[in-house]
Structures are given as structure tokens and as C-alpha cells.
Design a protein that fits this description.
With 64 residues, the chain is an alpha+beta fold. Helix content is 50%, strand content 14%. It has a two-stranded antiparallel sheet. The protein is elongated, with a radius of gyration of 20 Å. 0% of the residues are buried.
């Protein structure tokens, strides 16, 4: 499990209002979330028709 070193930021009433974490740990969390999202997206489209290379190139050109 990823260990997160966090600092709790308190407001004037001493209530937690934010969290600070080291940038490297934040970047690792970002990577984990992105990978999770990619896996979910791949799972959602696994049964869809696949494009040939030619069809995929044509499709991506149309997006520009």
C-alpha cells in the first residue's frame, strides 16, 4: 500500500481545511488514478468492434 505523508492545514477555527502531501507522492497518486481510469475505459470498450490500422489512422486524422 502506498504510504502518504500528509500535513493537515487548519483554518482559523482549527478545523481541517486542506491536506499537503509531497509532490512525488501526489504524482504517484495521479499515475494510479490515471491507470485505473484507463483500465476502466478499456474494460468498457472491450466488446466493441476494433478498427483496422487504416481505419484508425483515418479516424484520428478526422479528429484534428
Amino acid at each position: 500500500m502506498l504510504k502518504i505523508h500528509k500535513n493537515i492545514v487548519l483554518d482559523e477555527s482549527q478545523r481541517p481545511s486542506a491536506v499537503q502531501i509531497p509532490i512525488k507522492e501526489f504524482e504517484r497518486l495521479e499515475e494510479i488514478v490515471e491507470n485505473y481510469g484507463l483500465v476502466k475505459l478499456m474494460d468498457e470498450v472491450k466488446d466493441e468492434e476494433q478498427l483496422s490500422v487504416k481505419e484508425a489512422k483515418k479516424y484520428y486524422q478526422s479528429l484534428k
